[in-house]
Specification:
The protein is 19% helix and 19% strand. With 149 residues, the chain is of the alpha+beta class. The chain has 2 helices and 6 strands. The protein is globular, with a radius of gyration of 17 Å. The protein has a single domain, classed as 4-Layer Sandwich (Nitrilase/N-carbamoyl-D-aminoacid amidohydrolase). The mean pLDDT is 85.
């Protein structure tokens, strides 16, 4: 069975480009030292999403989540579970480590089970080894079989 160790880096929002670059260097080094072959960061981590060329609302109050996939949480985590099942794939979601996250940084297995996740709001690197054979793409093959040959 071929395996791949992936790392999901969940940093706090960078205060400046140099701060962000420093975090990238530190988190990639940590992931690499722990055996990761691939390191993923949140969308647009450099230069960052907040306030680059658009107004953003200040950090507000919210609910601190504690349980992945809780029935009280928004749909995001449930959608992650469903995408993995309906496509028979691993689903990795990487988020910023911010207060009051709507969804956790997590790896969902092809059977729709959360295999690993970082606690909400905690900066860090989630390392997880996936079994490539388990991600058969069985159901996704119906729509694009040429991608799975």
């Amino acid at each position: 069975m071929p395996h791949l160790t992936i790392a999901l880096a969940s940093p706090r929002v960078a205060t400046a480009l140099d701060d962000g670059l420093g975090k990238v260097v530190r988190l990639v080094a940590d992931a690499s030292a722990r055996g990761a072959s691939v390191v993923c960061f949140p969308e647009a981590y450099l230069p960052g999403l907040r306030g680059q060329d658009f107004d953003v609302l200040p950090w507000g109050k919210g609910e601190q989540r504690t349980t992945f996939g809780s029935s009280e949480t928004p749909y995001y985590e449930k959608a992650m579970l469903m995408r993995s099942i309906e496509n028979t794939i691993y689903f990795a979601s990487v988020n910023y480590a911010v207060p009051f996250q709507e969804s956790a940084t997590a790896v969902i297995g092809p059977q729709g089970v959360c295999e690993a996740w970082l606690p909400y709001g905690r900066e860090g690197v989630l390392l997880h080894t996936i079994d490539l054979d388990a991600a058969s793409g069985l159901l996704a093959k119906r729509f694009a079989p040429e991608r799975y040959d």
